[in-house]
Design a protein that fits this description.
homodimer; alpha+beta; L-amino peptidase D-ALA esterase/amidase; Ubiquitin-like (UB roll); 2 domains; 7-stranded mixed β-sheet; 5-stranded mixed β-sheet; 11 helices
Chain lengths: 409, 409
């Protein structure tokens, strides 16, 4: 059902020098599928991350924050399991996450706080530690620079398509690679980052700079998508710079810094949009644009009111230009002094509403034509200021209910 | 599909002295069904209302506010149409609402600002004024005190069951009647009041007191329910005191005032719960209780995070005790300093989570047993303070998508 999204073509994912990936089938929840991923970074690599703001954050998220702090970002590996989120698992959950890092560190010859752990899957159940630990040797034995496609597959849960993006560019006269993977299809309204995403470059970037960039990239990508408004317990977005390539960046003024940052953000945005394209039950990819708002917060409030409304989302599923539902959502977005007579609403280039009501030139068949497309832009011009934003979302279909009513069974 | 809700039994709706109701079939949207309601009040009646906070509020809501102000609540009639919400209709919509009031006022011999207009149905289309005005004579000819059941039917849209409640009590030695009707099944997250509800008593109550009471009753009833989180453009809750009965109340200290106010709130709460029981596609009626919060706002934020989560609502539909989804919703409710180790989560009397994870005594079969019931209480004890709240909601089923993907077709 994914909207204009297919698995990465063979050879399209460029290896990142200084980084190897290995996967294993550990039977965490379902037999026979890749469900453990290990990534190993060359000595000298730096890592930075942003994580969920959910107060019920998962144990591995707590461990990641601790390890990034105590290792100052000098990370040597990460380990991911699917099938179990290790969230809502109390102190035992934290002990399980730490034990996983210790086991991998012993095998790779580094410190436990140089390993970042990640989990995704069912909440409120303890990790099957015996099976997870038993899977690590296979994953380590599988480590190779070319295994990006397998890595993207190993972190999937309800995803129907593996998500990856890769760019190779010459920046400041040096060849640079940026490659990343992501997973997520439901419980998606990231508040920092998405469910899970890892992006790596072979450039050398100091950790403090990398931490600023990862936040900026998240704000322009994963923090701008929503499937169902449910901010997950496990959202994590980690950016790694191996330093094994030719480009070295010291600060924002370094030659190539701006271009590298833009390339990283481009990869992150592509991955974030891939999550929406593969949103649970999605049949449409919708860009919600809000322009001329009084502030960035106001623009976001209006965009999310539209993007979260079940009535708007079911109308998109039905290809029904029932546009009053969009106006209704704008009206309850919380702008107390909104003058509805001044705003304009567009579906792609069709002006639908103006002067507080249906635009005089609007014809139902024009709205219908746009609504039938698989990709639609809803644009609200508030005419109150200069701020603007874009949020990406999908429609709300029968399959969303089916997927989520049956997820554990 | 309504959950433990049936149409009012014949004879169960007590007439309110000083109030008559008449309906008509005006073909506003669909032929053959009652779609216009007129209510006439005796001279001396007072009315008060609360209305949607949606900034895209409908034209009749604007007219109601104006008329209540200019007539000081000395209202003589109300007129309701279904099939068209007269919302997102700009200046012409307001003119249409006023013209409807003028036409009815001329027929009843009162001023136009003594008539309150209401509309419900599709947004962004103009009222078919010719058919609406042509229906008024039939509705006026039908006026009678006993027509409450027909009135409840005439205001339905996607409702599957007409909603009404009635109480007769002896208060301060006088017999008093309170009877009300309501409609609404989708676009329900009232922020002042529900889609439409009218409650009347034959007691005499000054308008200023009535205005305070209507707000309090709304806060304890319609402002505590949600179906899909969509605050409608047309929410209106109007309370009428005809003064034609035996009880007269002058202020909160008058004999019987507290009891009358409680009876009015009881009727409003019954009607609000009826809206949730008949929520679009509902198969479960869920009471979301939050206790020991630091503030009322915090309690409401947690309750609505749970009640609005599509993942929680689909789990209820599936009777699946996938309780991590509830913890996840609590975690993103916006309490920055929430200590998840201190909270407790209960399904009815089954303690599900404590100490930041699954309760040691919790057994899946106990959760399963509760989830299979048609009525469920989800109780979160935050252990942060003394505030508490209850919000009523329903589950999220395939039929919600079907109803809203097909609503206009």
């Amino acid at each position: 059902m994914a909207v204009n999204l297919s698995a990465p073509a063979p050879g399209s994912l460029h290896p990142v020098a200084g980084l190897e990936l290995g996967t294993a089938r550990a039977h965490i929840r379902k037999p026979g599928r890749r469900d453990v991923l290990v990534a190993r970074f060359a000595p000298g690599a730096t890592a930075a991350g942003v994580f969920t703001r959910n107060r019920f954050c998962a144990a591995p998220v707590r461990a990641c924050r601790e390890h990034l702090a105590s290792s100052a970002g000098a990370v040597r590996a990460l380990v991911v399991n699917t099938g179990n989120a290790n969230a809502g698992t109390g102190e035992q959950g934290l002990a399980d996450a730490r034990r996983t890092c210790e086991a991998l560190a012993a095998r790779l010859g580094c410190r436990a706080d140089q390993v970042l752990p990640f989990s995704t899957g069912v909440i409120l159940e303890h990790l099957p530690m015996d099976r997870l630990l038993a899977g690590l040797p296979d994953a380590v034995a599988d480590l190779a620079p070319a295994h990006w496609a397998e890595a993207a597959e190993a972190i999937m849960t309800t995803d129907t398509v593996p998500k990856a993006a890769s760019r190779r560019a010459t920046i400041a006269g040096r060849e640079v690679t940026v490659t990343g993977i992501a997973k997520g299809a439901g419980m998606i309204r990231p508040n920092m980052a998405t469910m899970l995403s890892f992006v790596a470059t072979d450039a050398a970037v100091p950790q403090a700079l990398l931490q600023r960039w990862v936040r900026e990239a998240a704000d322009a990508s994963f923090n701008r998508v929503t499937v169902d408004g449910d901010t997950s317990t496990n959202d994590s977005f980690v950016l790694v710079a191996t330093g094994a390539g030719a480009l070295r960046v010291d600060d924002d003024a370094s030659p190539g810094a701006a271009e590298l940052r833009a390339t990283i953000t481009d990869v992150a945005r592509t991955l974030a949009q891939a999550i929406v394209r593969d949103g649970e039950g999605a049949t449409k990819f919708i860009s919600v644009v809000v322009e001329r708002a009084a502030s960035a917060d106001e623009a976001a409030a209006v965009a999310y009111a539209i993007a979260h409304s079940p009535l708007v989302k079911t109308a998109f599923f039905a290809s029904d230009p029932n546009l009053g539902r969009i106006l209704c959502a704008i009206g309850y977005a919380g702008i107390d002094d909104l003058d509805v007579d001044r705003l304009e609403l567009y579906l792609d280039d069709v002006r639908v509403a103006s002067a507080g009501g249906r635009d005089p030139a609007y014809r139902e068949e024009d709205g219908q034509r746009v609504m039938k497309q698989p990709e639609i832009t809803v644009r609200t011009v508030l005419n109150r200021g200069t701020a603007s934003t874009t949020v990406w979302t999908c429609d709300f279909s029968h399959d969303y209910v089916s997927i989520n009513a049956d997820y554990r069974s």
